[in-house]
Amino acid sequence: MNHKLRDDEGFGLTEVMISMLLLLIIMMAMISAVISALQITANNGTNSTAAEAVQQRIEDVRAASVAGDCDVLEGAALPTTTVSDGRGVLITVSGSLASPCVRASASGERDPVQVMRLTVTANSSAPEASNPVVTTTTDILVKFQP
């Protein structure tokens, strides 16, 4: 009665290989999710920078409207500027006025208050961006000095 007892404790090669295959599949799914999250975070950073640049342009035009001068107002609203976000993506900010600023006639007559509709647009140079990234339209009250 010489029976050799077989020791069945521990994992065999087959179990270890199956465990490694399952771990590989789970890790590949996790890596894909992390890459997608990083891309979304980068795009959100670009959108945030664009929104901030558009808001700054609107604030600049509102500050210029206090001067009560068409040239100052248009000088703040119309130029095209470029800013970059944290990744170095260029964002082009441009503004337009829906109606031209009415300048005083030779006799100095004009409406002392005008409401100007300002549209500010930000476009991104990133290839994955859907342009325009941000567009904002607002009304600006301009009170001209007598």
Task: Describe the model.
This protein has 146 residues and is of the alpha+beta class. The chain has one domain. The chain is built from two helices and four strands. A four-stranded antiparallel beta sheet has the order 1-2-3-4, covered by helices on one side. The protein starts with 12 loop residues before the first helix and ends with a strand. The mean pLDDT is 87. This is Prepilin-type N-terminal cleavage/methylation domain-containing protein. It comes from Demequina zhanjiangensis. Keywords: Membrane, Transmembrane, Transmembrane helix.
Helical residue percent? 40-55%
Number of folding domains? Answer: 1
Q: What share of residues are in beta strands?
A: 15-25%
Q: Taking Cα atoms only, what radius of gyration do you get, to the nearest Å? A: 31 Å
Give me the side-by-side strand order of the main sheet.
Answer: 1-2-3-4
What structural class do you assign from the helix and strand content?
A: alpha+beta
Total number of helices:
2
Q: Tell me, rounded to a whole number, the average pLDDT.
A: 87
Order of helices and strands: HHEEEE
Terminal residue distance: 121 Å
Broad shape: rod-shaped
**Count of individual beta strands:** 4
Uncertain parts? none
> The biggest beta sheet, please?
4 strands, antiparallel
